[in-house]
Amino acid sequence: MLDIINMSKVGKKPIVVPANVSVTVGDNKITVKGPKGELAFVFNPEIIVEFKENQIMVSPKKDISRLYAFWGLTRSIISNMVEGVVKGYEKKLELQGVGYKVAIKGKDLDLNLGFSHPVLFKAPEGVEFVVEKNIITISGIDKKLVGQVAADIRKIRKPEPYKGKGVRYVGEQVRRKAGKKVGSGT
Q: Which of 33, 94, 111, 129 is the most exposed place for a label (fewest CB within 10 A)?
């Protein structure tokens, strides 16, 4: 590793790999296998990734300031991969509105969100849905994919600011606007 004065605070931390996880580092590619599945990531060729003694170390090849961002990013992505294959990730969405319903059809979601037609949301590979009343739980091992699927479902009917109807994250606060005021007609 380089002795760098302005080091990435995130990048210089080692990633501890649990015993039940196997890691393979090749030409600009890292593969992480665990109890929940397998993930692969192709990283920047100017970044060095080493796996020794159940620890992954990430460092830049050169002392160039633009590499510090890639250094920290690469370390964070690999850390999320290790955590994902061990624990997995999940996001929860909540439907609010009269007549808003959700059901599972096979692996896909059938959403009734006040449109003239139901919306069928196809489940991408590696993502599972669980529905309980008006709450959708999205789970998987890839943090980026789980977050993107949750954002895509929320985008179908964002919460509107007047009545708060729509799809929102569980615990999300929606800023409400006052409706039109009725004045005295004098």
A: 33
